[in-house]
């Protein structure tokens, strides 16, 4: 007499029972076979035969070989149904003792949801009209030891989903679509830039001097060289060295690392596109990015119009282009536009809106504090913000008409910064002076300030052509394209706090 089934939630009991089945497979010598080869995916069968009637499939004799994970099972005496899931989707299988023989049929009868099978059979339609594979050969390829989540409850705990992404992908099929779309986006961006004549390169991820952005780096140690190295915070200074060397259109898509907090928008490692074009300025790169994002949305989503977190966005319309001062005035109507260069006035406003105010901050930094506190989150529609203060733009070219601002832009959509770009500073003396100012800031306690990179100054002294460059955050861009509220939703393995 068989034991009564224990409650599903008793995971230890379930694992023990499955291990007993695995032990029997090991004893028989066929626990993990690797000889089965499939020739067909589920979506192919659904696409080719899904619309056929049951009558039209009665004479089908073409055998198909499929393989996948058992996601559901219904045993009804000597005939049973199951659902196999592969990389493309799901398809039902119809299993009969008469077709398989008693031993093979018993393997299916005693199988568990989560087991992986290979099956050979012909297509058919059930009485309810569901396309199925009438199985003539069935092989258990992998015994699933751990049970999948309950069918109706699914896997909804976000901590578990992010920490055990493999399980998330098994039981939440729509998750894979997000990452398919991510891959499609990166391929499109590469093709877009390649078509324009850009060269893709790779630059060091371990650097002797971290540069290219204001951020706190991760530090590691190289034993053979007996020196500390930094995980890169940006590839910018290396890519511009290549422009000096003659790579006049160059880009890289790769990881950056910043020792910062975790949030729905931040992960310590993230993917960036950075690209540089000689004999161009920041206005031309704004045009390029606008065209790129519009074409990307069309390629990935089929339309330049999309919905993100319940709000509609239209990338087919021209993107907004405002200076930082215009944006601050727009969202702070009480501010006095005539006093946006007065440090004392801006310090009072920054304190009022919760910005950081330090003695070392000049008017440009304080204006940026007000912008970040009152404007950024309100930039929902696609918007370029230009004329960033020189004080907060240590690598950007000063504006010819107003040296207090730079020829720089940041691009926002959905209230988040997605891109940053500027006409590059190619005056080695100006760049050296700004590096020195960053070093002073670092000595004053700013652990995100830049180091002095003497080799980069040397490269500029050989001559950097007039150049414009930009960086686009791939993760935030994919969040927008896939309607994902958190950066963790678009990273297969986001950084997590330790398990308890």
Would you kindly provide a written description of the structure presented here, covering whatever features stand out?
There is one protein chain. By secondary structure, the protein is of the alpha+beta class. It has two domains: 11-148, OB fold (Dihydrolipoamide Acetyltransferase, E2P) (Beta Barrel); 171-332 and 375-490, Bira Bifunctional Protein, Domain 2 (BirA Bifunctional Protein, domain 2, 2-Layer Sandwich), CATH 3.30.930.10. Helices cover 33% and strands 24% of the residues. It contains 15 helices and 18 strands. It has helices at residues 11-28, 42-49, 97-100, 102-109, 158-163, 165-171, 173-195, 236-245, 282-301, 324-331, 343-352, 363-374, 428-443, 454-462, 474-481; strands spanning 64-76, 79-86, 89-96, 116-125, 131-142, 199-200, 206-207, 219-222, 227-231, 249-257, 269-278, 305-308, 311-314, 320-323, 383-386, 408-413, 416-423, 467-473. The strands form four sheets. An eight-stranded mixed beta sheet has the order 6-10-11-18-17-16-15-14, with helices on both faces. It has a five-stranded mixed barrel with strand order 1-2-3-5-4. A three-stranded antiparallel beta sheet has the order 7-9-8, with no helix packed on it. Strand 12 (305-308) and strand 13 form a beta hairpin. Helix 7 crosses helix 9 (282-301) and helix 7 crosses helix 15 (474-481). It is elongated and about 85 Å long. 32% of the residues are buried. The model is unreliable at 1-8 (pLDDT under 50).
């Amino acid at each position: 007499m068989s034991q009564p089934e224990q409650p599903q939630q008793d995971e230890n009991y379930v694992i023990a029972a499955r291990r007993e089945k695995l032990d029997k497979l090991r004893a028989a010598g066929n626990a993990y076979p690797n000889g089965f080869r499939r020739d067909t995916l589920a979506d192919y069968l659904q696409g080719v035969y899904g619309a056929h009637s049951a009558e039209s499939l009665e004479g089908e004799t073409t055998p198909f070989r499929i393989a996948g994970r058992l996601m559901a099972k219904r045993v009804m005496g000597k005939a049973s149904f199951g659902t196999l899931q592969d990389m493309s989707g799901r398809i039902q299988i119809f299993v009969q003792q008469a077709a398989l023989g008693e031993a093979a049929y018993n393997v299916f009868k005693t199988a568990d949801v989560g087991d992986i099978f290979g099956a050979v059979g012909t297509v058919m339609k059930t009485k309810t009209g569901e396309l199925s594979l009438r199985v003539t050969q069935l092989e258990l390829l992998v015994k699933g030891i751990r049970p999948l989540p309950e069918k109706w409850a699914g896997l909804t705990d976000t901590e578990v989903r992010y920490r055990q992404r493999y399980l998330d992908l098994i039981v939440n099929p729509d998750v894979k679509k997000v990452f398919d779309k991510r891959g499609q986006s990166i391929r499109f961006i590469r093709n877009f830039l390649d078509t324009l004549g850009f060269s893709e390169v790779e630059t060091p991820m371990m650097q002797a001097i971290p540069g290219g952005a204001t951020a706190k780096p991760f530090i590691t140690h190289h034993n053979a060289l007996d020196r500390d190295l930094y995980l890169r915070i940006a590839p910018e200074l290396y890519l511009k060295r290549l422009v000096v060397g003659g790579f006049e259109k160059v880009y890289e898509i790769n990881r950056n690392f910043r020792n910062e907090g975790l949030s729905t928008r931040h992960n310590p490692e993230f993917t960036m596109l950075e690209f540089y074009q000689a004999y161009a300025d920041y206005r031309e790169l704004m045009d390029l990015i606008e065209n790129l994002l519009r074409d990307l949305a069309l390629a990935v989503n089929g339309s330049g119009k999309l919905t993100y977190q319940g709000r509609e966005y239209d990338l087919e319309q021209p993107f907004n282009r405002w200076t930082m001062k215009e944006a601050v005035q727009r969202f702070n109507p009480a501010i006095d536009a005539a006093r946006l260069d007065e440090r004392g006035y801006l310090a009072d406003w920054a304190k009022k809106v919760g910005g950081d105010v330090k003695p070392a901050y000049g008017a440009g930094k304080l204006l940026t504090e007000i912008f970040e506190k009152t404007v950024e989150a309100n930039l929902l529609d696609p918007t370029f913000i230009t004329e960033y203060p020189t004080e907060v733009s240590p690598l950007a070219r000063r504006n010819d008409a107003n040296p207090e601002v730079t020829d720089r832009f940041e691009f926002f959509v959905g209230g988040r910064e997605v891109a940053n770009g500027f006409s590059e500073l190619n005056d080695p003396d100006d760049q050296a002076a700004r590096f020195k100012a960053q070093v002073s800031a670092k000595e004053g306690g700013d652990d995100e300030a830049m180091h002095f990179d003497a080799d980069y100054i040397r490269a500029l002294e050989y001559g950097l052509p007039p150049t414009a460059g930009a960086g686009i955050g791939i993760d935030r861009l994919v969040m927008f394209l896939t309607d994902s509220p958190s950066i963790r939703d678009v990273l297969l393995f986001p950084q997590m706090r330790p398990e308890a």
